[in-house]
Design goal:
422 residues; alpha/beta; Adenylosuccinate Synthetase, Chain A, domain 1; Adenylosuccinate Synthetase, subunit A, domain 2; Adenylosuccinate Synthetase, Chain A, domain 3; 3 domains; ten-stranded mixed beta sheet; four-stranded mixed beta sheet; binds inosinic acid
């Protein structure tokens, strides 16, 4: 069984926890897009691991973990994650693989990301990690890939070519001194030596695994509305976060995908700029942010919070082909008197039941809410669907009927055990 995990909102839905749970049942775990703009925390015993690139499945002995060709890799960050695993005695030498086709984030990508952002009138609020400029080079056909680090001659030519153009842009447009060829060349060849043992044709590896009836989990980063095509453009990331990206980013054909699981927070959050129709007013937003500990795992930035937006999530179910849903952090809604679900948008007297592409509508739309009764704080964490407060069950039933996908998991807390399987 080959399963894709996608975020249905603006990222930070809690995919990390679901991936951790589902990893136990598969043989291979593959990350398919994004870079170290993503991040999730996994707690094992007393040790806390923060992963930005390596699939957290690496903590499960025997599982093979791949970084797919669709991912952009900052080698320094990868090195740190590997060192952390080594330090904690996690043996990954035979079960960690990096696609030879994955693109590398270069020092100039990071600077360009930050400099561009300071110059923009309408800021995107990027993570500043060089993600956009790296993907731009990939599409521009001047990117540098993992495989290039294993061939010093090819790498030299590519880097020279890049620096010739980029240094000029840095100096003339951004009054920045530019970058030294020698320093980057040496540093990245060193990375090549360190990563050499893990670099391989992961598409081949995964397709052979499918032939041998192995189970694969394809892990997306960010969320549907940060997708470069279907997200709230231009306030998006630069890769395909939707389920289609899983095929492009791994080399697994669409006909080999068996199931797509969507991960949804029981409310909505967003980091960075861009439209957010159901965003809470300031005071309640701050209250909910603290209640849900809504601060970015990568940048620590506070997340904007709002009510559950069914218009958005219906679009997500359609775009991704979601059959099953995991509803996360429902416990954060405990103790609220009233809970709202957005079922349509209203703009200039017109009702929108489908997600609008018109930026003006999306930015100025007034949400049409279905109001529901809340439920009190649960002293004991419910461990089955039956143990959830009746009003929480009604809320979930309402989500399921609006989204027309089966809710199979409900998360009621941080720990692995605080997950209700339905
Ligand atoms: P970039 O991916 O750094 O270019 O940032 C583009 C937009 O995507 C910004 O609004 C970021 O806050 C957002 N973003 C990128 N990665 C994540 C993530 O993992 N979770 C939530 N938002 C993200």
């Amino acid at each position: 069984m080959n399963t894709v995990i996608v975020g249905t909102q603006w990222g930070d839905e809690g995919k990390g926890k679901i991936i951790d749970i589902l990893s136990q049942k598969v043989d291979y775990i593959v990350r398919y897009q994004g870079g170290n703009n993503a991040g999730h925390t996994v707690v094992v015993g007393k040790k806390e691991y923060i992963f930005h690139l390596i699939p957290s499945g690496i903590l499960h002995p025997g599982k093979i973990c791949c970084i797919g060709n669709g991912v952009v890799i900052d080698p320094e960050v990868l090195l740190h994650e590997l060192a952390d695993l080594r330090k904690n005695g996690v043996d990954f030498s035979k079960r960690f693989k990096i696609s030879s086709l994955a693109h590398l984030i270069m020092p100039y990508h990071k600077n360009l990301d930050q400099l561009r952002e300071t110059k923009r009138k309408n800021k995107i609020g990027t993570t500043g990690r060089g993600i956009g400029p790296c993907y731009a080079d990939k599409i521009n056909r001047c990117g540098i890939r993992m495989i290039d680090l294993l061939n010093p001659d090819i790498f030299r030519e590519k880097l020279k070519d890049n620096l010739k153009e980029k240094n000029e842009i840095f100096r003339k447009v951004y009054q920045h001194p530019g970058f030294s060829f020698e320093k980057i060349y040496r540093q990245y060849l060193d990375y090549g030596n360190l990563f050499g043992a893990y670099i391989s044709n992961t598409a081949l590896l995964l397709n052979k695994a499918i032939e041998n009836k192995k189970d694969i989990l394809l892990e997306g980063a960010q969320g549907t509305f940060l997708d470069i095509d279907f997200g709230t453009y231009p306030f998006v990331t630069s890769s395909s976060a939707t389920s289609g990206g899983a095929c492009i980013g791994t080399g697994i054909s669409p006909v080999k995908i068996d199931k797509v699981v969507g991960v949804c927070k029981a409310y909505t959050t967003r980091v960075g700029e861009g439209p957010f129709p159901t965003e809470f007013a300031r005071e309640f937003g701050e209250f909910m942010r603290d209640k849900g500990n809504e601060f970015g795992a990568t940048t620590g930035r506070p997340r904007r919070c709002g009510w559950f937006d069914a218009v958005m999530c219906q679009e997500s179910v359609m775009l991704n082909g979601i059959a099953e849903l995991a509803i996360m952090k429902i416990d954060v809604l405990d103790g609220l008197k009233k809970i709202k679900i957005c079922t349509a948008y209203k703009y200039k007297g017109k009702i929108f039941k489908e997600f609008p592409h018109d930026f003006e509508v999306l930015s100025k739309a007034i949400p049409v809410y279905k109001e529901m009764a809340g439920w009190p704080h649960q002293d004991n964490k419910p461990s089955s669907f039956k143990e959830l407060h009746p009003n929480a069950r009604i809320y979930l039933a309402q989500l399921q009927s609006l989204l027309k996908a089966k809710i199979t998991m409900v998360s009621v807390g941080q720990a692995r055990k605080d997950t209700i399987m339905i």
